[in-house]
Amino acid sequence: MKTVVSTSKFLFLLACLAVVGCAGNLLDENEILYTAVGASDAVGVGATPLTNGYVYLIREELESRGKEVGLINLGIPAANTDLIEDTVQVFLRTGAQPDLVTIWVGANDIVDGVQVDDFEDELEEMLSALRDETSAFIAIANIPDLTELPRFEAGPDDDVTLERVNAFNAVIARQANSFDVPVVDLFEEDIKDYLISDVDGFHPNDAGHRRIAGKFLEVIVPQLD
After folding, report:
1. What is the pTM of this model?
2. How far apart are the C-alpha atoms of 49 and 51, rounded to whole Å?
3. Fewer CB under 10 Å: which end of the chain, C or N?
4. Average pLDDT for residues 19-33, to the nearest whole number?
5. CA distances (Å), 94 to each of 87, 90, 151, 168, in order?
6. Bridge partners of 103?
7. Tens-digit pLDDT profile for residues 89-129
8. Which contacts qualify for 9-17: CB closer than 8 Å, 24 or more apart?
9. What integer best gives the mean pLDDT of the chain?
10. Helix spans in the chain (H)
């Protein structure tokens, strides 16, 4: 059974509904409605300015290929997958029909000690709703080895272990396979300091966001007309 949404979450979801409720429009084959699902990375945290974040770089690349791209960014800084999944459900109630959805979730859940089974339940509900209510092309990224981030090299965390990263990535792979969603493999990418923000040692910097955008685009671009 899902946890009852707190008052703060409920107010956020109402605000989200108000924003995206006005965003829907009919699209032709030259237009893409792109919805980004994630936490602070989706917002662009770590990039300078935020619009150098990977979501905006994906949009720019699609536009450079002659597409008109409408972007609805559902990124929520510091959010775990339970709040992100709730937000996706509210978004879908607006009747919006995205053509493209990118998903990158799970890192905050690992850091915050969320149980693997709870993460899987939320991810399954999110992907099921997107599959049932849209015909969007969906791409989901897995989680890099967080233990190699400067933040956790300097201050190890009992919740941030390679074992837990592997367990969360196994969930992503399993659910992606179940819903026929390609996985953008960020775990295979070596984590280099020059890709990580020196402000917090956690979020990708401009170069890191470019690398992430490029990995997503490897699976997105072949789907273009």
Report:
1. 0.89
2. 5
3. N
4. 55
5. 11, 7, 39, 30
6. 37, 140
7. 999 999 999 999 999 999 999 999 999 999 999 999 999 99
8. 9/83, 9/86, 12/76, 12/83, 12/87, 13/86, 13/87, 13/90, 16/74, 16/87, 16/90, 16/91, 17/90, 17/91, 17/93, 17/94
9. 90
10. 7-20, 40-43, 54-64, 81-93, 107-111, 116-133, 150-154, 162-178, 206-220
Residue 32, exposed/middle/buried by CB under 10 A (0-12, 13-18, 19+)?
A: buried
How far from chain centre, in Å, is Cα 61?
A: 18
The CATH architecture to which 31-223 belongs is: 3-Layer(aba) Sandwich (3.40)
Instruction: Answer for the pair 168, 110: CB distance below 8 angstroms, yes or no.
Output: yes
| Contact yes or no for 72/99 (Cβ under 8 A) | no
Structure confidence at residue 24 (pLDDT): 38
Beta bridge partners of 220: none
How far, in Å, are 121, 171, 208 from residue 2 at the CA level? Answer: 9, 19, 34
SS3 137: strand
Say if CB 208 and CB 196 are below 8 A apart: yes
| Residue labelled with tokens 């946890």 | 3
Concatenated DSSP letters for 30-78? TEEEEEEEESHHHHTTTSSSGGGSHHHHHHHHHHHTT-EEEEEE---TT
How many residues comprise the chain? 225
Say what the pLDDT of residue 8 is. Answer: 44
With beta carbons less than 8 A apart as the criterion, state whether 70 and 97 touch: no
